[in-house]
Amino acid sequence: MERLMEIAKKVADRVEIYSESGAYDGVSFENARLKDIDSSLQSGAGLLLIKDGRLGYAYTRNLIDREGLVRNALASIKGGVEAGYDLPLTKDLPELKTYDAGIEDLTSTKMVDECERICGEFAGKTEGQLNVSAGRDASTVRVMNSSGTDLSSRSSSYYAYTALYYPGSYSSISRVTLGKKFVPASPEDLDYILGTYNGSLKEVKPATGRTRVLFLPETIYALIWRLKAATQGKSVYEQVSPLKDKLGEKIVSDRLTVLDRPLDDTWPGARAFDDEGTACRDVPIVEDGVLRNFYYDRYYAWKMNAESTGHGFRPGIVSRVTPSLEHTVIKPGTESFAGLLKKMGKGIIAAGVMGAHSGNILNGDFSIGLSPGLYVEDGEIVGQVKDAMVAGNIYDTLQNVIGIGDRLYPASMGKFPAVLLDDVSFAAKG
Asked: Model's pTM, two decimal places?
């Protein structure tokens, strides 16, 4: 890395190097039987150059040919991407506990044992197909630049995924266990999967129309995805966000607060700096229903004459950073799962979704298949609904928050509680 920096500084005005390395081990069970054991190693580096106000980028899986990497980055400057921003000098960041040495003692054998234990908890209690997987990851990222920044972060994570599938379908009731080291799946989570599944085997056909819908932590991302897209600095700069002129205005229910919390090291993946070396900080996106912030990397902050909010992240070394919310949290409420069902009375649970990308994401529109959808009467789950969907616009739908769960769960795009909404459009075949 140091040698690459020396070479690149001779030919460019500003230089940024991002590197990552990691090791992964995982096991998977299908239908309660061991299916696969997998291990992988990965590493690589990305080189960003700014020369004469233009930006170039190249990457490699190894640093054997440093001069070639620099030549490739210089060649990409011909693309003409303007870049008038400076690279940060970042020091004195908070020390986060992102790595637990216990991850080193976690073997594939121990993960197999945990999956077998989980399978044993379900044995004889259900006829559904049980799939379980577990994995451990240890990784390091490093960011250097010509301004003098040199930062690194080492992280560890462990997950276990348990899913009980309905006969003849890809629909399941599932839950994820997550930690910085091995954490056994809790009896509470396993009981939730088994009880919810067994209580919803009967197929029911409720009337279509507007109803209450409980989005579980595993499915609320389908709505939050649209909020993320609309508050991204790139969308604001390109004038395609419906929220571009609404900072300080109420846009959803005052019960709803959506935050980005990269410094919360009680969960795996916390970061004190982003992939550009900008210091991270906790940022409210929506606070008590009011739009508080857009989020930026350095490029779009420069375009908008704003400051980077520390949200310059990349999906691996193959591309430059973009503004990205990597640590999204919905502030939990006070309701248990059972309490939310009682408050619902009658309605639908969005326990799984498909087609979450359907609809105009930037505009907030959604049209989402339920996979599965569960039907609730008198505060109790009475069956599952097939070939059903919910639709609407998040800026209307999220005005009608009835209750929010009291516990955060790891899910796609963040850590969320269950959210109960009123007056949601629901349709089912037949």
From this structure: 0.92
